From TrEMBL, chain A:
Keywords: Oxidoreductase, Pyruvate, Thiamine pyrophosphate. This is Pyruvate dehydrogenase E1 component subunit alpha. Residues 298-308 have a biased composition (Basic and acidic residues). The keyword Oxidoreductase applies. Its EC number is 1.2.4.1. Residues 289-308 are annotated as: Disordered. Its cofactor is thiamine diphosphate. The lineage of its organism: Eukaryota, Viridiplantae, Streptophyta, Embryophyta, Tracheophyta. GO terms for molecular function: pyruvate dehydrogenase (acetyl-transferring) activity. The pyruvate dehydrogenase complex catalyzes the overall conversion of pyruvate to acetyl-CoA and CO(2). It contains multiple copies of three enzymatic components: pyruvate dehydrogenase (E1), dihydrolipoamide acetyltransferase (E2) and lipoamide dehydrogenase (E3). It is an enzyme of class 1 (oxidoreductase). Residues 62-357 form the Dehydrogenase E1 component domain.
Automatic annotation (TrEMBL), chain B:
Residues 31-219 form the Transketolase-like pyrimidine-binding domain. One of its GO terms (biological process) is branched-chain amino acid catabolic process. GO terms for cellular component: mitochondrial matrix. This is 3-methyl-2-oxobutanoate dehydrogenase (2-methylpropanoyl-transferring). It is found in: Mitochondrion matrix. It comes from Kingdonia uniflora. The keyword Cytoplasm does not apply. Pfam families: Transket_pyr (PF02779), Transketolase_C (PF02780).
Length: 386, 364
């Protein structure tokens, strides 16, 4: 059933990033995940995933938007409109998309600095993203956070953290709060393969297991921590087994449907039995950050091989085409439309002014606390920190 | 400078290597800061077979290219990558340093015969390291009644603003470590200084934290002698003579202070500029001698003003030569806010802020 153009574009122009649910009246499509899940101390879920035409098309649009957004951020950085640190997510989109498809906004997500797309997946907008990246008032952290510090409290996104591994114990606290409040919700704590070697990971694992927290540790294994390949840094790169007494699941993180299945399974498990690790086997196309060309410690063949064989967007495109949910041209049109939307968002973000200089002194302490900041020689410049 | 002679003599004994204050022994190539550091590390590895470099990505040259080529030259058993686990890395370094100190205790007491160098950028910012550095490294000698120490340990870390580093990567955490007896804190201002001070830090029998000004890695370029030389620790240097006011700073800040001095000179004010180089233990005598001459003092650093090392300098100088001071000590420092992503120039102790304070202090 090929869709008409107007039909196709509706979700884009209304609310592209709504919570994904299976309320669509579409008929159910069953798909096998790319590869089986591997379990550690747990019986893995089935490879057969239920989806729908609506979901597959939404996956396609959302991932294509993320991809386009990151590529646009790359050029904005090169033209010096974005300064400071900037870590791109292209290649890893299926993790965010699949996860969102399995959970609700009552569930919490906390991640590291590679946070733009996680934020978008949680219901952030393109304008707020670009505004934050360029340090403008309209940004999701009022321009005060920048690339590594995106947050969206109302949708359970506890954000962007710059110190490797530091966000994971924070996630334990979130999960404890959820359990204490009987929220029937879980926390996804995301970290990289490099971060997996931090002591804090093991401290967090122990706490969450000891107190049966509804905690899901998501290791986004993109196989490199900056320029260090996983095998150089880890005695065992089977991160899903790192929890020992905590069960784990290895997931093809390039397959959004596998991610969805795994997250659904993990959520049910965590609510009943406590923590679980999900290792998402994924890949980042860009270098670690903007100062890393990304080609000195891995071969170009490796990168193009992943692009050709495992790309998460192409995987969904193939599914859409093989199930005849849309034509090739319709998908191309969607991509064109996304391009336009991203460009418009950038233009809009550029109109937003920089924060007021007085913002330098706000949010340091609680308002009205009355603490002073001293400048220059302690006599000339004084400001009450708000 | 009154004491340097004494120290020179002592250092001369300890080190048979060419030692100089001005590094004019031999001419060298013009290089930037990271190449100068690379040279120092190369020499350290070459001259002491028990020296090691380890840290995140160091075997590929590190984020700032300071360790380029060293793994190839000295082998992966001496220059190696660690996993991303700072607390563990520092603990490991302390243990390794202690081990070498035991087996070579006799020599270790006389001179530094071993070293390890840790090199990674965010080290100091990782809160859990605190315990390893402050509790394990700094107090090892003291609490073991001198049976053990980790004097061989030198921890290198970038610090300071780069124009766009944001909240974590632009911080200047030097004063935290100045509050820990047992550690030394060293900050170079230029490539030439960096090479000599790093070699001294490596060969010093105490654990040293060596902060490298991020801003200068590529930007600062000067002639650096190719041979092995050391510059003394705990010895400040008067880098510009003057009579009206003393300015004290370290690291990247000195370049700005120098410019402020030039501008002040045009307004008829003669400034004396001192590079402290070692923050702890610091050379009070040199600063005091200068303040006795000028009667005025200005200290400048990027770290927030409250509780910064400038506070310690002003208090000490007020104690030592209160009656000679003709104006309150001026501190031109970072603001008491987190390091901002936007408005960095607003936060920073810029040249004009320094210049204004020079004028205000001189006309007090
Ligand atoms: C505690 C700490 N150490 C070092 C760094 C510098 N650093 C930033 S990202 C990174 C690599 C992390 O790799 P990984 O966990 O695999 O995440 P990825 O970047 O691949 O998403 C490093 C070493 C840091 N931010 N924090
Ligand atoms: Mg990684």
């Amino acid at each position: 059933m090929a869709l008409t153009r107007s039909n196709l574009l509706r979700p884009l122009t209304t609310s592209l990033y709504r919570p994904f649910s299976s309320t669509s009246s579409d008929s159910i499509i069953t798909v096998e995940t790319s590869i089986p899940f591997t379990g550690h101390n747990i019986e893995p879920p089935s490879r057969t995933v239920e989806t729908s035409s609506f979901e597959l098309l939404t996956f396609f649009k959302d991932m294509a938007t993320m991809r386009r957004m990151e590529i646009a951020a790359d050029s904005l950085y090169k033209s010096k409109l974005i300064r400071g640190f900037c870590h791109l997510y292209d290649g890893q989109e299926a993790v965010s998309i699949g996860m969102e498809a399995a959970i609700t906004r009552k569930d919490c997500i906390i991640t590291a600095y590679r946070d733009h797309c996680i934020y978008l997946g949680r219901g952030g907008t393109l304008v707020e993203t670009f505004a934050e990246l360029m340090g403008r008032q309209a940004g999701c952290s009022k321009g005060k956070g920048g690339s590594m510090h995106f947050y969206k409290k109302e949708n359970g996104f506890y954000g962007g953290h710059g110190i490797v591994g530091a966000q994971v114990p924070l996630g334990c606290g979130l999960a404890f709060g959820q359990k204490y409040n009987k929220d029937e919700a879980v926390t996804f704590m995301m970290y990289g393969d490099g971060a997996a070697n931090q002591g804090q990971l093991f401290e967090a694992l122990n706490m969450s297991a000891l107190w049966d927290l509804p905690a899901i540790l998501v290791c986004e294994n993109n196989h490199y921590g900056m320029g260090t390949a996983e095998w150089r840094a880890a005695k065992s790169a089977a991160y899903y087994k790192r929890g020992d007494y905590v069960p784990g699941l290895k997931v093809d993180g390039m397959d959004a449907l596998a991610v969805k299945q795994a997250c659904k399974f993990a959520k049910e498990h965590a609510l009943k039995n406590g923590p679980i690790i999900l290792e998402m086997d994924t890949y980042r196309y860009h270098g670690h950050s903007m100062s890393d060309p990304g080609s000195t410690y891995r071969t170009r063949d490796e990168i193009s091989g992943v692009r050709q064989e495992r790309d998460p967007i192409e995987r969904i495109r193939k599914l859409v085409l093989s199930h005849e949910l849309a034509t090739e041209k319709e998908l191309k049109d969607i991509e064109k439309e996304i391009r336009k939307e991203v460009d418009e968002a950038i233009a809009k973000a550029k109109e937003s002014p920089m924060p007021e200089p007085s913002e330098l002194f706000t949010n340091v302490y609680v308002k009205g606390f009355g603490t002073e900041s001293f400048g220059a020689d302690r006599k000339e410049v004084r400001a009450v920190l708000l | 400078m009154s004491i340097p002679m004494l120290r020179l003599a002592k250092w001369g004994l300890i080190s048979k290597r060419c030692f100089s204050n001005t590094t004019t022994c031999e001419s060298g190539k013009t290089v930037n800061l990271f190449s100068a550091i690379n040279q120092a590390l190369d020499i350290a590895l070459d001259t002491d077979p028990r020296s090691y470099i380890f840290g995140e990505d160091v075997s590929f040259g590190g984020v700032f290219r300071c360790t380029s080529g060293l793994a190839d030259r000295y082998g992966k058993h001496r220059v190696f990558n660690t996993p991303l686990c700072e607390q563990g890395i520092v603990g490991f370094g302390i243990g390794l340093a202690a081990m070498i100190c035991i087996t070579d205790r006799e020599t270790a007491q006389l001179q530094k015969s071993s070293l390890q160098i840790i090199s990674f950028p965010l080290l100091i910012r990782h809160e859990s390291l605190w315990s390893q550095i402050v509790n394990e490294a700094a107090k090892f000698r003291y609490r073991s009644g001198n049976q053990f120490n980790c004097g061989g340990l030198t921890i290198r870390s970038p610090y300071g603003a780069v124009g766009h580093g944001g909240h974590y990567h632009s911080q200047s955490p030097e004063s935290f470590f100045c509050h820990v007896p047992g550690l030394k804190v060293v900050i170079p201002r230029s490539p030439q200084q960096a090479k000599g001070l790093l070699l001294s830090s490596i060969r010093d029998p105490n654990p040293v934290i060596f902060f490298e000004p991020k801003w200068l890695y590529r930007l600062a370029v000067e002639e650096v002698p190719e041979h092995d030389y050391m510059l003394p620790l705990s010895e400040a240097e008067v880098i510009r003579q003057g009579n009206d006011i003393t300015l004290v700073g370290w690291g990247a800040q000195l370049a700005l202070m120098e410019k402020a001095c030039d501008d002040a000179e045009k307004a008829g004010i003669s400034c004396e500029l001192i590079d402290l180089k070692t923050l702890i233990p610091w050379d009070k005598e040199t600063v005091e001698a200068s303040v006795r001459k000028t009667g005025k003092l200005l200290v400048s650093h990027e770290a927030p003003v409250t509780g910064g090392f400038g506070a310690e300098i002003s208090a000490s100088i007020a104690e030592r030569c209160f009656s000679r001071l003709e104006a309150p000590v001026a501190r031109i420092c970072g603001l008491d806010t987190p390091f901002p992503l936007v408005f960095e120039p607003f936060y920073m102790p810029t040249k004009n802020k320094i210049l204004d304070a020079i004028k205000a202090t001189v006309n007090y």
